[in-house]
Amino acid sequence: GINAEYGGKRQMCAPRGRETVRVLYLLSDVYLSPLCLSFVGQHSGHSFKPLDEEYEVHKKKITDEINALRKRLMELDGIKRDIEKNVETVKFAKEDRELEMRTVYDSMVKKLESQLKNKLNTLKGQKNSIC
């Protein structure tokens, strides 16, 4: 249940301030003691609810919200793990493609250098045969 203490101070009945509250005056969110409720003429026709009962209602709502938030957090953690896995997969695929492209580039450079060398040798041979 609830002990009617907020911020370390015991909550006293709003109108009389002598007794610990036990009931919530629903119309204005004023907490009342059993003594105040005995003044029926002053509060006739008003709606009241036991403070412990109102506490349990709010506690259940908060507990349900916490459980829903925990479930959502677990879902988001799963999504985060999937994204991290996908990022790693893309990173490795990128590295593989870079390596493949470097290999092809190096092969092309070697082939062109070889062709250039052959042409230069041919030209040098033709030059020597003329001179």
What are the salient characteristics of this protein?
mainly alpha; 3-stranded antiparallel sheet; two-stranded antiparallel ribbon; 67% helix
What does the secondary structure layout of this molecule look like, with pairings?
Blueprint: E1 5-6, E2 9-10, E3 23-25, E4 30-32, H1 34-37, H2 40-43, E5 48-50, H3 51-130
Antiparallel strand pairs: 1-2, 3-4, 3-5
Helical residue percent band: 55-70%
Give the strand order of the largest sheet, numbering strands 1, 2, ... along the chain. Answer: 4-3-5
User: How many beta-strand segments?
Assistant: 5
- Order of helices and strands, N to C? EEEEHHEH
- Which range does the strand content fall in? 5-15%
The helix/strand class is: mainly alpha
Show unreliable segments.
1-13, 15-19
Characterize the biggest β-sheet: 3 strands, antiparallel
- Compute the gyration radius: what is it? 42 Å
Mean pLDDT across the residues is 78
Shape summary:
rod-shaped
Counting DSSP H or I runs of 4 or more residues, the number of helices is 3
